């Protein structure tokens, strides 16, 4: 079984001025939606994250296309396979508990969930990419729990890793978390690459 998530770290993939402009627009919008993610198998509808998010296209479709272009150019990804890009905000005390980004097999058989996430059309989440929009906070590191690998936030840094292997099976070492923010506010861009084209 392939255990290599092929973690890539690309410093300064996005210019600091662009990162700052995106954050300024998010702060102008003000209210973000509470991030929703339920623990697989939980009967309590337990959310694993306390963050908030906003679709990047709500700020600017042009900026979203630019960010897509940067990600796909740096990682050699196909842009038509990307999910819509999200901006995620973590305030002091907020975190994302250990989780996997791919969809487990049970979700492909759950019709309502499968249709909502376009699983039959676009397939699973092959890979994940994150761009750190700022680093003026403490805590908030990205930790790969099984391997103990910790990624330190740096403004403009792009990181990416694989969630499933070539056989389509979950890579166990992809288990990761966003550590709790101790001071300040953390902003990231987050996007997932699917197996096939993601419909608009």
Q: Would you kindly provide a written description of the structure presented here, covering whatever features stand out?
A:
The termini are far apart. The longest helix has 15 residues, at 61-75. The protein has a single domain, classed as Jelly Rolls, CATH 2.60.120. The strands form three sheets. A seven-stranded antiparallel β-sheet has the order 1-10-6-13-4-3-2, covered by helices on one side. It is of the alpha+beta class and 200 residues long. The protein contains five helices and 13 strands.
Largest sheet: 7 strands, antiparallel
Order of helix and strand elements from N to C terminus: EHEEHEEHHHEEEEEEEE
Mean pLDDT comes to 91
> Could you please say which CATH topology applies here?
Jelly Rolls
Helix content: 10-25%
**Shape call:** globular
CATH architecture verdict: Sandwich
Q: Beta fraction of the residues?
A: 25-35%
Strand order within the widest beta sheet: 1-10-6-13-4-3-2
User: In total, how many domains does the architecture comprise?
Assistant: 1
Gyration radius from CA atoms, angstroms: 16 Å
What is the CATH superfamily?
A: q2cbj1_9rhob like domain
Task: Give the helix/strand class.
Answer: alpha+beta
Which regions contain 5 or more consecutive residues with pLDDT less than 50? Answer: 39-45
- How far is the N terminus from the C terminus? 34 Å
Q: State the total count of DSSP E strands.
A: 13
Return the CATH class.
Answer: Mainly Beta
- Determine the number of helices (DSSP H or I, runs of at least 4 residues): 5
């Amino acid at each position: 079984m392939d255990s290599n998530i092929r973690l890539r770290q690309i410093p300064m993939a996005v210019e600091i001025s662009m990162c700052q402009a995106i954050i300024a627009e998010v702060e102008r919008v003000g209210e973000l939606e509470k991030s929703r993610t339920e623990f697989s198998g939980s009967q309590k509808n337990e959310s694993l994250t306390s963050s908030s998010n906003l679709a990047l296209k709500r700020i600017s479709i042009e900026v979203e296309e630019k960010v897509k272009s940067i990600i796909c150019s740096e990682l050699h990804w196909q842009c038509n396979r990307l999910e819509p890009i999200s901006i995620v905000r973590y305030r002091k005390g907020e975190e994302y508990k250990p989780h996997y980004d791919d969809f487990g097999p049970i979700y492909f058989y759950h019709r309502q969930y499968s249709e909502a996430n376009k699983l039959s059309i676009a397939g699973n989440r092959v890979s994940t990419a994150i761009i750190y929009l700022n680093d003026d906070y403490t805590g908030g590191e990205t930790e790969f729990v099984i391997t103990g690998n910790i990624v330190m936030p740096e403004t403009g840094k792009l990181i990416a890793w694989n969630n499933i292997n070539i056989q389509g099976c979950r890579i166990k070492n992809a288990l990761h978390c966003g550590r709790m923010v101790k001071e300040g506010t953390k902003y990231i861009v987050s996007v997932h690459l699917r197996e096939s084209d993601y419909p608009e």
